[in-house]
Specification:
Blueprint: E1 4-5, E2 10-12, H1 17-20, H2 30-36, H3 45-48, H4 63-78, E3 82-84, E4 90-97, E5 100-110, H5 111-115, E6 119-120, H6 127-140, E7 142-143, E8 147-151, H7 155-164, E9 171-174, E10 180-186, H8 189-200, E11 205-209, H9 211-225, E12 238-245, E13 251-252, E14 254-258, H10 266-273, E15 277-282, E16 293-298, E17 301-307, H11 322-331, E18 346-350, H12 355-363, E19 369-372, H13 378-386, E20 397-398, E21 409-410
Parallel strand pairs: 6-11, 8-12
Antiparallel strand pairs: 1-5, 2-3, 4-5, 4-10, 5-12, 7-21, 8-11, 9-10, 13-20, 14-18, 14-19, 15-17, 16-17, 16-19
Amino acid sequence: MSLIRPLRGLRPKVEFATEVVAPPYDVLNTDEARQRVAGRPYSFLHISKPEIDLPVGTDPFDASVYQKGAENLARLVSEEILIRENKPVYYAYRHDMNGHEQAGLVAVASVKDYDSNRIRKHEYTRPEKEDDRVNQIDALNAQTGPVFLTYRQDNTVDGIVNQVMEQTPLYDLTADDGVQHTIWVVDDENDIDTLTTTFEAMNCLYIADGHHRSAAASRVAALRNKGKKTSGDKNHDYFLTVIFPDNQMMILDYNRVIKDLNGLADDEFLKQCAENFEIQTSEQKVKPEKPTVFGMYLDKQWYRLTIKDKLIPKDDPVGRLDVSLLQNNLITPILAIDDPRRDKRIDFVGGIRGLGELEKRVDSGEMQVAFALHATLLSDLMAVADAEEVMPPKSTWFEPKLADGLISHVLD
């Protein structure tokens, strides 16, 4: 049993790829998905969000939804919109968002290595979201949403991927969000063997995005192996991934907006902030230029906050994160928000929306103060995962997002 292996991908015929490709299931709500599929009977949203094909108001977690997804998948297979690769292969996958390119490998990764933490995690999962993915995988008998993995860059992998990308691609398309997705088949047996053995020699892989999908894949494998003698080499013992080298990854900032100042007037709030931060006013929006620096927007004024050095726990991989420094030295002690996962007074804004979104949320009166953070470093994410620790909620925002529908992994 190897860390990764090739797969017989279930994928669109080339002529249907643009009609099939869809955003990840969790970036659109049901109403947005209904609008997106208008006039698009082959959109993968019919499989990943099948409540759109049931009466309005249907509970998206009802058993009928998963059954509808299975029916829709079977329809696209029977109509030969989706076809199965005739032998196991890898795929090179490059996406380009506004000039930022990442080139990685589509593969299936070992559930056993996930369970043993060789495929390392950095987030808690929520049981209800895990249950949803378990039900979806089980109903479809397939994994349709790839888990986003990363690894420490390797020249051998780069060489094969770059060589493959000189060939004619299988797909080269631009999705609705403007991200270009290009995929090549890696079917040379020597390349396949080299990739498999090179990854097998690696110490570990890291989950960037997709903790619920990987946890669900583990649960499905355990259910299907229950009471059986298994070598761990069935399709359900592996889960669908796209694996990118760490030197190509892009993490964006994940910012905070808060409804009130915990009963404090602006001047008293600033005074308390000054106990832990050096504060400067700014005539421009403050996008932090390095870790330990924060932008703050309050009453139409931007401030630059720099955490005092003595407050940075240098040897604590979680405590030294910017999200932790802000939470532990301002949001909790001054604003009395102890649990950012559940407290309704705090919300989170992905960096892709820009600092203007922070101003908009505050100027509208919906929120009273906003904080702009420096993006979490991938090296810090790896350090947390290596320590078997967990990052605070909403620590990372990865872009570009992987598309759904281009490659799926069938479990039989």
